[in-house]
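Consider the tokenized backbone below.
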């Protein structure tokens, strides 16, 4: 039972029946050869790889963890072989451009793959987790000379990459970063400082590791505008080693297999990526894709937890379940037959399905924003990605953790002991609420930067388009439309509050409620789309619609009232 099996048919249902993914993809010339059969074929192969090669290493990764000795990090048994197989089979480069050694397939396939990998083995998946973002960053901002050396190595996954932002005194506030970059010869710089919490900062999975490091030039202004981005490889092309040292790996709650490193840059030679003082801009290229990946970690871990709990609930018998009139009860029933347990499982299933609709659509929009021939579609896609990504990051990771804990509950005391693997899921899932911008930062980003930033225009554009897709034949359309209306109303009120004295304090206070309100409205849209598409296998796909009435709408109203009350007090 301590395993994970990706369900290709469930994913194909969301992709094709609900989102018409291959139709959306076919509108882009770069993907002219991608059809539904190809999506299915790639996912079938991916599911075998994940199930057979990555999932079996989950427990040993947790138990043995990554080990540091004399500055060298050794990954848990089996990890290196699995990683070699991963990149050599082309899984690392699914959406990398063909000219950079990749397969030029749509990002949404990457999204599904990383959801599955995280579900199967979050610790292992941390290693390639930043590849796509690092590849995009180098491709968009590095000089041709750097691209010639590093682009295809990172794009294919032959070399892994890190993102070195955090310092002891600079976490959410990157403006406080103090690592120095001193100009050296030609286009080289000497990087000096200490970075903490660097995932995969040192390991033995690949021959080389490419660090992307935020640092400050001597004459740079304080704050975020003074930051530049540098590439520092572990090994230079002449095989000499850079002066980057792994001083410690952290003991932590979960993802034991992922080495979280303290890295000391001791005048390590590095190269500028992009323009001086525009390091954060280059980093933002990585941001939407990376945050979507983290959201999918939440979805994946929730699915893995659900699979375990669902299987257990169909084996374990305990007490008599209340039955419909006339039915006979056995001496003890399966715990799935206890309505309280069934409700828990159905609720988590609804979360997984609804989140997938929004996350995969975001994966599709990441490509549409780049490649769609119609500029209005590109613009819409950009607005969607910018607005929905923080919502997904925060909501899916929070549910990944809380939902995993609910699934643990299904096991009773057996969930709390190691044997069943569910307690590992709970521990592993917790970090996703913290890294890649904490969930509080996502809420601030959504409300203060995205919604107030354009006075609610982007949000209205999205709501208008989604409302058009709701018609009378769609169950629950009135509930969803009324949520959209209230979300618009509260957003307009937030714009006014922002202009009042003390408004920023109130807005920051309610930002988490606002994000949740937005998430519930969009998830409700997703569930109504699923329900309209199911030809109605309600037993499998009807959970969202049930949840909508049972607790989603009441929670929406509660959050709405909290925000309204705070606005009125002001
Ligand atoms: C396992 C792990 C892996 C990591 N991997 C990497 C990596 O690869 N690269 C890297 O650079 N970093 C990495 N990090 C660091 C991670 O991104 C930071 O921990 C995170 O950004 C938060 O920073 P902090 O820990 O300093 O917390 P702080 O920024 O000190 O925040 C503390 C609390 O205050 C809240 N807070 C801060 N500012 C605000 C605000 N304006 N409004 C509301 N609340 C606020 C936060 O949400 C949080 O709850 C990793 C961390 C861990 C634990």
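A designed sequence for it:
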């Amino acid at each position: 039972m301590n395993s994970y099996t990706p369900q290709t048919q469930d994913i194909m249902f969301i992709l094709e029946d609900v989102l018409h993914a291959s139709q959306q993809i076919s509108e882009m010339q770069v993907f002219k050869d991608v059809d539904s059969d190809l999506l299915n074929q790639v996912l079938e192969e991916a599911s075998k790889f994940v199930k057979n090669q990555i999932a079996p290493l989950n427990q040993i990764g947790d138990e043995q963890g990554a080990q540091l000795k004399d500055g060298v990090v050794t990954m848990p048994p089996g990890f290196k072989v699995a990683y070699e197989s991963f990149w050599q089979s082309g899984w690392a480069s699914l959406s990398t451009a063909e000219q950079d050694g990749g397969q030029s397939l749509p990002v949404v396939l990457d999204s599904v793959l990383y959801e599955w990998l995280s579900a199967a083995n979050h610790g292992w998946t941390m290693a390639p987790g930043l590849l796509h973002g690092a590849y995009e960053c180098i491709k968009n901002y590095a000089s041709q000379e750097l691209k010639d050396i590093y682009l295809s190595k990172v794009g294919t996954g032959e070399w892994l990459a890190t993102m070195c932002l955090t310092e002891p005194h600079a976490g959410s506030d990157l403006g406080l970063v103090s690592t120095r970059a001193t100009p050296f010869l030609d286009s080289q710089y000497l990087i000096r400082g200490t970075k903490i919490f660097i995932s995969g900062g040192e390991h033995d999975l690949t021959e080389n590791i490419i660090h992307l490091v935020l640092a400050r030039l001597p004459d740079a202004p304080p704050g975020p505008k003074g930051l530049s981005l540098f590439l520092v490889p572990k090994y230079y092309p002449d095989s000499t080693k850079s002066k980057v040292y792994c001083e410690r790996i952290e003991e932590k709650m979960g993802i034991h297999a992922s080495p979280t490193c303290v890295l000391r840059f001791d005048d390590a030679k590095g190269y500028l990526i992009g323009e001086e003082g525009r390091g954060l801009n280059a980093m933002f290229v990585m941001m939407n894709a990376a945050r979507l990946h983290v959201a999918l970690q939440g979805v994946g871990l929730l699915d893995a937890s659900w699979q375990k709990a669902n299987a257990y609930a169909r084996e374990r018998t305990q007490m008599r379940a209340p039955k419909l009139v006339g039915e006979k009860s056995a001496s003890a029933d399966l715990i799935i037959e206890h309505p309280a347990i069934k409700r828990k499982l159905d609720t988590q299933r609804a979360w997984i399905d609804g989140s997938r609709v929004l996350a995969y659509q975001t994966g599709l929009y990441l490509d549409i924003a780049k490649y769609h021939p119609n500029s209005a579609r590109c613009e819409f896609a950009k607005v969607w990605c910018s607005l929905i990504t923080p919502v997904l990051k925060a909501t899916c990771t929070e549910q990944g953790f809380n939902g995993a804990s609910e699934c643990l509950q299904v096991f009773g005391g057996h969930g709390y002991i190691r044997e069943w693997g569910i307690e590992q899921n709970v521990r592993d899932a917790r970090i996703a609420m913290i890294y890649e911008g904490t969930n509080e930062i996502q809420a601030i980003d959504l409300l203060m930067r995205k919604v107030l930033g354009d006075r609610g225009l982007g949000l209205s554009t999205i709501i208008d388009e989604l409302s058009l897709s709701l018609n009378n034949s769609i169950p629950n359309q009135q509930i969803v439309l009324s949520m959209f209306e209230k979300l618009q109303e509260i957003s307009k009120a937030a714009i006014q509050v922002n202009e009042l004295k003390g408004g920023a304090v109130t807005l920051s206070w309610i930002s988490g409620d606002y994000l949740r309100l937005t998430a519930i409205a969009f998830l409700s849209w997703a569930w109504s789309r699923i329900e309209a598409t199911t030809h109605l296998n309600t037993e499998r796909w009807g959970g969202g619609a049930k949840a909508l009435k049972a607790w989603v709408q009441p929670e929406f109203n509660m959050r709405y009232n909290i925000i309204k009350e705070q606005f009125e007090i002001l």
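Residues 162-166, 171-172, 197-199, 252, 260, 431, 434-435, 438, 440-441, 444 surround flavin-adenine dinucleotide (CB under 6 Å).
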